[in-house]
Specification:
Elements (H helix, E strand, L loop, with lengths): L25 E2 L6 E2 L11 E4 L13 H13 L7 H14 L5 H14 L7 H25 L12 H10 L3 E9 H10 L3 H4 L3 E4 L8 H11 L7 E5 L2 H9 L3 E5 L12 H9 L4 E3 L5 H10 L3
Parallel strand pairs: 3-4, 3-6, 4-5, 6-7, 7-8
Antiparallel strand pairs: 1-2, 2-8
Helix pairs in contact: 1-2, 3-4
């Protein structure tokens, strides 16, 4: 397996807080759309990048409850003196710190933790496959219900997703999916959610070789292929990677602080704090007020 070269700017860096609002934030009147700082390029967006899991799809909601126990069990097998509680805290910290990157990064960290404890590590790809097998046990009924029609896409989409995508397409935008989940599963689950027509062939995800995909690579391709400026890029995500990548090229980033399990319509505090800290311009809990959000972004003059 190729190991990322940290000097490569297309490789996903670890989370580092880089921004703190210097003044109180505000809200679009009568909405839960929080303005952290006003965008500089209202109405100029031609291309829109979406993360998938937690931003649009809720099929994989609850995945940490699969990944963390699996990793704790593997570390306990190393014969460490640490308690299960101590290991759970350790694993939760690095799993959540790396959330938003390709899943394989979390498995690379697991391998390193096994080595630290004198264990015999497996290839990170083996750990990733083990995790995915366990995750599929959790979500197979959701996928089956969507495939059979027992469940409609609205059951497993962030509220307002279909209306948002339709609004953007009606304004002539090109929409892209870029996910740290394996591309084959992103495509399968986008089909189950019936959102592929909004993206056509512009769906990207992790590859077996970690160096073959990053969200920064997708953004670089968008800008070069369509000869657009970064200011014309709008991004939506509940992970720090896509927010950071969109901001790094001068685009506008909307943090989706989705409450995946409760769908409460209020922002998840952990997500909000994390995404504001990486430079998000706006924060929404979901897309229930997408008309106000898109009107603000597209119809207002700078």
């Amino acid at each position: 397996m190729n190991v990322p070269d940290k000097t490569d700017k297309l490789i996903e860096d670890d989370y580092q807080r880089t921004f703190d609002p210097s003044s109180p934030t505000s809200f679009l009147p009568g909405t839960s759309v929080e303005i952290i700082r006003e965008p500089q390029h209202f109405g100029k967006y031609t291309d829109v990048l979406f993360d998938f899991d937690g931003t649009l799809s809720l099929i994989r909601e609850g995945w940490p409850q699969v990944m963390v126990p699996m990793m704790v069990e593997i570390l306990l097998e190393c014969g460490t003196d640490e308690s299960q509680e101590e290991l759970s805290k350790l694993v939760m910290e690095f799993v959540m710190r790396l959330t938003g990157k390709q899943t394989l990064y979390q498995m690379i960290q697991l391998r390193d933790e096994v080595v630290k404890r004198g264990g015999v590590p497996r290839d990170p790809l083996e750990y990733k496959n083990q995790y995915h097998d366990l995750l599929m046990q959790r979500i197979s009924k959701r996928r089956d219900a969507l495939a059979s029609g027992e469940a409609t896409p609205s059951h497993y989409l962030v509220p307002g997703s279909l209306a948002l995508l339709g609004n953007l397409i009606s304004r002539g935008c090109r929409c892209y999916l870029a996910s740290g989940t394996d591309e084959v599963y992103v495509r399968e689950e986008a089909e189950l959610l019936r959102i592929v027509p909004f993206f056509e062939d512009r769906i990207y995800g992790a590859k077996p070789d970690i160096l073959d995909f990053s969200k920064a690579m997708v953004i670089k391709s968008i800008l070069s292929d369509h000869r657009i400026e970064g200011a014309q890029l709008l991004g939506f995500g509940d992970g720090y990677v896509e927010i950071e990548n969109v901001k790094s090229v001068g685009g506008t980033a909307v943090a989706v602080a989705s409450d995946e399990s409760g769908r409460s319509g209020t922002p998840d505090p952990w997500k909000r704090e994390r995404l504001v800290g990486i430079g998000a311009d706006l924060v929404v809990p979901d897309f229930g007020e997408q008309e106000h959000l898109i009107s603000y972004l597209f119809d207002r003059s700078s």
